């Protein structure tokens, strides 16, 4: 209460993300606050799980902070899967969800042909003031060929991505063409005569980057990084642009891609397919054979790709030192090696993470799991894309309008959280590895030295995984704090506009700078936050899709014994990743009660037996048996198989030592 007026101070409102538990209670997560705000169901005010909301803080007289939702700022999910129930006068829709969701009212004119009890996708329309239920319309009746197909669609929708494009967006895309007009030709540099090729995965359809190479002298080359000019076709104000921004990213699941833009754009107009003239936005470098960049040029271009390589073909050329365009490939690879070594010398961190790819049959059923390796062919492309991205970011970072930096979507990565780093450093020390934490540069060097020293050792997996967990998450923001993991002062995403909306934003700002017609966007930070959130949602969808396929693959292996590595530990058990299949499941602590009383030691990242001293520690190899595979929950359950001397026997022996029997007095 104010002393001067005697009136109560207005309670503040904050912005955050609503998370609803299975019990129905809500919590609003507010960035910068240690504790979440409790929101009771009667105070949701039409908000649903995952929505970004404005919440008013209640006066709770010093107890736990509670809030009342005032407004929904952004819906996480606008499409839902469930069952439709049709009566004579109206219909209602019951969405599938593990979290509480309201039923939707469906006007009969919005049934789109759906019949009673059919499985459908419904789009959220509105939630009128005073209405008890939201209103929706049926987008499509689900006619999935199998349970796996339906599961993938549910994963996409549950993470806030629509399955289909609206008719308006599709019509807009179909109306476009790639005819090269004379006035457009005059605005661009023509690189169609230069040797140009793409290098992508064998199954790729959208080729958004290409490399060109021309020898200038004995030790100097002109190398172009050419990126699909999506912003030439997708203009601000178009329905396609609004849809691209809303999605913000393509979603890659094991058996499909849910694209950010319609296929007419992603696979046809903008895809840098061989033997076709294409609009591109390029960074052209003059580079010496020793990897020194002497100068660069940025601008709009035309290219004509001469050849489409996949990674395996390029790797074969690198290994054999012969093949089509081998001289050019080998030169680019030698430069990429120089750039890569230079990066690590300047503080980039060399973390390696395991990625899996599924071998699928025609129906999408997994037949096998392949561990993806990062080979030199991948690193070749990676290094030139990194070079282009950092060059664009550094160029923009120098520009000022009214003495202020231009709002621009930098890709930043903060330094490690010291509170997360300390326990990791202490744990690494137990294996004999030292860390210098005097400054950011020395910490990065210590990480890299650790990755070299640990390679091939039993503790490699655990220290790599824990090291990655100490890192901050990379995000988009206008605050240019640099990219710690890559060791760059300036960095952005310029090279994948077909599948990432921030790259389109980068292209637009850069084009304005080059045209000297800059219009600073005061909503850029808001757009960056949205794109970062959608990126996280896409990653969650991709993890869920992989997990589903892993469980589906493992269902045929029930009862089999396997070798695994402990990948995580908690108070209720430990997770094991199988060595051969790279599939993760849980060994419940309940299944260990017969052997010992295990307690969680978070400093050791281990479960420790109170009687036997047996440890289950992250990185340890264990033998396990697959006992359950639940597709609906995307969950595997393992049972631990003891070694030759069982823990039961160890426990008995320990008890005997503690309480020895009295000798017979006779």
Describe this structure in words.
With 666 residues, the chain is an alpha+beta fold. It has four domains: 13-74, OB fold (Dihydrolipoamide Acetyltransferase, E2P) (Beta Barrel); 172-412 and 478-546, no CATH class; 418-471, no CATH class; 558-656, Beta Barrel (OB fold (Dihydrolipoamide Acetyltransferase, E2P)), CATH 2.40.50.140. It is 29% helix and 29% strand. The strands form nine sheets. A seven-stranded mixed sheet has the order 11-18-17-14-13-12-19. Helix 1 (147-158) runs antiparallel to helix 14 (524-554) and helix 10 (418-430) runs antiparallel to helix 12.
Compose a concise summary of this entry.
Helix content is 29%, strand content 29%. With 666 residues, the chain is an alpha+beta fold.
Overall number of domains: 4
Q: Assign a percent range to the helix content.
A: 25-40%
Strand composition percent:
25-35%
Order of strands, main sheet, comes to 11-18-17-14-13-12-19
Overall 3D geometry? globular
Q: In terms of quaternary structure, what is this?
A: single chain
What would you call the structural class? Answer: alpha+beta
What keywords describe this structure?
666 residues; alpha+beta; 7-stranded mixed beta sheet; 5-stranded antiparallel beta sheet; 15 helices; 29% helix; globular
